Amino acid sequence: MAGPARPLPALPSKWDIREKVWEYLEASGLAEFPRPVRGRIPNFKGASHAATRLLGLQEFQAACRVKINPDAPQRNARFLTLEARKTLLVPTPRLRTGLFNRIVPPPGASKEILRRCATSQGVKDYSVPVGLDGKAQVDLVVVGSVAVSEKGWRIGKGEGYADMEYAMMVSMGAVREDTPVVTIVHDCQVLDIAEELLGDHDLTVDYILTPTRTIQTNCKRPKPQGIMWHKVSSEMLGKIPILRTLRSRERQAGKDVTLQDEHPALANTNRAAISDEKATAANSHVESDPVNPKSQGSATTTTVYVGNLPGSLRVSELKSALRELQVIPVGLKWQGAQHRAFLDYSDRGTAHRAVSSLQGLSLGGNALRAELARSQRSRGQGEISRHK
């Protein structure tokens, strides 16, 4: 008689894969400055040699304008682009001041000067911003990766900027559907990645360059067709000025630019929450939660406690995980020194999904604890164990 069916093993998450790569690069001695590589597009021994494989790509030879990310492992790719007298476009850090800058070496620049132009400091010293009206065209895109599969599935460091940069270029008309995308990684970063981990906003790659191989992925999965506004938060919109401009233009063109936290049902809930908070402040005193002093008020807000956060974890990494799990809160209170955080949700269903998704999730080598915060007890949630 057959025994009970065994549960299928859970797929490793994107964070599991990132942690595996970062840990291996450090432990094997392959990691290069800047270190630690954790939380970064990792630099590695052999990155410069891997970049020279660009010269053998017909797509690079034919390109006039090349967009390359500003991370350390792509430094030599930037130099080779300048040396070939091609136009080099580099994204601005975190898109704070625009989409990208064009590197303009001084007339008659020597190789030494071109190498300086390819560094992060050189990008600052020898660049001019490219505005939305610059009609920039990009013939080849080079992105960094933490991990990539031979099928072209890519995992970045988790903040979503490479995906957003590409989506913005689509919206600007700077790239076409057939514009090739290349990534430069160490051989150990080429891993099997389940397609189920990919979202429709994730950028795929056409070529992978390593110190030992040039891999053509023949990837058929469509790249992002533009900005997916329903996945953009108000927080991200506030941080990226050029995104606000693009949103205004797309709204004028008649496109739906409703943000992730602006959908009608959620917007109504938020308005109700604000009204309840005002009424509570005016008419009564609500005792503060001794663990989460911020959880004071609205009957429509459900707070989730997340504990056992590793000391090295950054708030941006938690936010990235929440984006990937599609459980973005309307408010986040970060208490990294106490290894915990509190997430506020406008609807209870999303809060319960967040608890289910986060409980046991591995971040930074720690299995997270997730449960409804103690402040929920007064709303009929039942006794919640004391957070330690």
Commentary on this structure:
The chain is an alpha/beta fold and 388 residues long. Helix content is 30%, strand content 15%. It has helices at 14-27, 47-51, 58-62, 75-83, 111-117, 120-125, 161-172, 234-239, 241-252, 264-283, 315-325, 348-358; strands at 65-68, 87-91, 100-103, 127-130, 140-143, 147-148, 154-155, 181-184, 207-209, 214-216, 302-307, 331-335, 340-345, 362-363, 366-367, 369-372. An eight-stranded mixed β-sheet has the order 4-3-2-1-5-8-9-10. A hairpin with a 2-residue loop joins strand 14 (362-363) and strand 15 (366-367). Helix 4 (75-83) packs across helix 5. The two termini are 46 Å apart. Mean pLDDT is 81; it is low at 265-297 and 377-388.
Number of helices: 12
Mean pLDDT across all amino acids: 81
- Elements, N to C (H/E): HHHEHEEHHEEEEHEEEHHHEHEEHEEE
What share of residues is helical? 25-40%
Strand count, sense and barrel status of the largest sheet are: 8 strands, mixed
Shape: globular
Amount of beta strand = 15-25%
